[in-house]
Amino acid sequence: MESKGAGQSKLNPDEQALATYEETLRVSPNDVEAWYNKGLTLSKLERDEEALQCFEEALKLKPDHAEAWDNKGVALDNLARCEEALQCFEEALKLNPDYAEAWDDKGVVLSNLEGYEEALPCFDKALKIKPDFVRALYHKGLALVNLGRLDEAAVAYVEANKYPS
Predict the structure, then answer these.
(1) Are 106 and 74 in contact (CB under 8 A)?
(2) What is the pTM for the complete model shown?
(3) Residue 163: DSSP 8-state
(4) Tens-digit pLDDT profile for residues 10-65
(5) 10 Å Cβ neighbour count for 81?
(6) Are 70 and 98 in contact, with CB atoms under 8 Å apart?
(7) Distance between CA 123 and CA 109 in Å, rounded?
């Protein structure tokens, strides 16, 4: 008979983490961070519907969890529920106006909706907070390309290449 630990060792690290969070939640169903981290792990595994449920559980327990709002928005965006995603980013930014990742994520969704002009200030806010935020520089470059502003896009890409990714 195989022990539980031996069986889990055959799982990849994300599946192992998932099993750990599930066990934690079985014992402590009100553990906000376990719900949040389970959601992150499910997102990484591209199981967005399940991740969304975990972020919602975390937010029921702690409505002021800015990171859970942001990651709920990312999951909704992955599910093509862009308007709902934008509402989540707004909530995250109300809670933490200096949350660079939420500004970037909001810009990405606006770009996905072809709101490139609206997205640019989001990327700029993210970069004001975190000047070496490569992902925001890349997303800003993409928005500028879509607006036909190729010289400005090139500047963003050159800047992004200054930082290790």
Answers:
(1) no
(2) 0.88
(3) S
(4) 678 899 999 999 999 999 999 999 999 999 999 999 999 999 999 999 999 999 99
(5) 17
(6) no
(7) 11
Rounded Cα gap, residues 103 and 142, in angstroms? 15
Residue 119, amino acid:
A
Cβ(9)–Cβ(35) below 8 Å: no
CB 50 within 8 A of CB 22: no
- Report how far residue 126's alpha carbon sits from residue 63's, in angstroms, rounded to the nearest whole number: 23
Length of the chain: 165
Domains of the chain: 1-96 (1.25.40.10), 98-165 (1.25.40.10)
Contact criterion met (CB below 8 Å) for 135 and 104: yes
Residue 102 three-state SS: helix
> Positive or negative CA dihedral for 104, 105, 111, 115?
negative
Q: Cβ–Cβ contacts within 10 Å for residue 141, how many? A: 22
Instruction: Report d(CA 17, CA 8) in Å as an integer.
Output: 10
Structure tokens, 74: 């990312």
